[in-house]
Each structure stands twice: as structure tokens, then as C-alpha cells.
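Progress report, Aim 2. The chain analyzed during this reporting quarter is listed below.
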Amino acid sequence: MGMIEEVGTYLAASTLIGALGTDIFLNAMPDSTRVTVAVLEAPGSEPAYALGGGTVPIHTRASIDVLVRSSAGSAGYANPTNARTKTQRVWNRLSLVTNQTLSGSTYLRISPDDEPHLIDRDEQGRVVFGCSFTVMRRGTTGV
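Predicted C-alpha cells for the chain:
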């Protein structure tokens, strides 16, 4: 299982966030009338190697972006509260990850890069909130 799937599975374990494929989507933001959470892979930093070399990194430093779009509103504008609240729940949950195993992989830390904030309002008047994280995951040899 890859990093994005492991993080998505971890988020789906919280009933306050939602279910994979229904409320939470990986590397996608499908059009939906529900409050939708997208977990997106983003560019990270170079991996860390042990002193003296080595072929396998001791940990990777990936990045993820989380976008949360509100449900459709009336009169062309959605109430931003539902998306803002869900973004904060995701932020709270991911910020707790320190030296934890998610789906068999060891995560040293998932660190927030910013606070939940307004990103945009789409063409249907739905608001999009987001936040970003740096993910330090123990190196793996698998593909």
C-alpha cells in the first residue's frame, strides 16, 4: 500500500471525516453534492540516508495537500462552515501522527505546513478549504 492510501485509510477510520470512495477521495476531487475531502500527493523533499551512504533511505519526506469542498448551497452560495469544520477535523487527526504505524508502514511524523484556510469558491458557489502536510515515513524497499 502506498503513502496516499495509508493516509486515506487512517482518515477513514474517523467517523467524523468519512468513508473512502464516498466522502474521502485519493488524488481526485469528484463532483459531488456532499462535503468532499480530497487527499492529494504533492512534491516533497529529498529522502534522508544514513551517514556513510546506503541504497535505501532511512525515511522519506513526502507532502500531501488536503482539499475539502462544501456541499452545494442555495442561491448559488454554500455555507462554508461544513467544509471549514471538516478541514479542521482532518488537520487535527493528521497532526496527531507521531511514531505511529499506519497500514503496516511507520510514520515518524505528519507535520502541518499551515493552518486550514480558504482556497477558493468554485463555479457552483461551493467553498474549498485546504491545508498541507509534510509526511516523514520510514524508508521502504518495496515499489
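Residues 45 and 88 are 25 Å apart (CA to CA). The longest strand covers residues 36-48. These observations will guide the mutagenesis work planned for the next reporting period.
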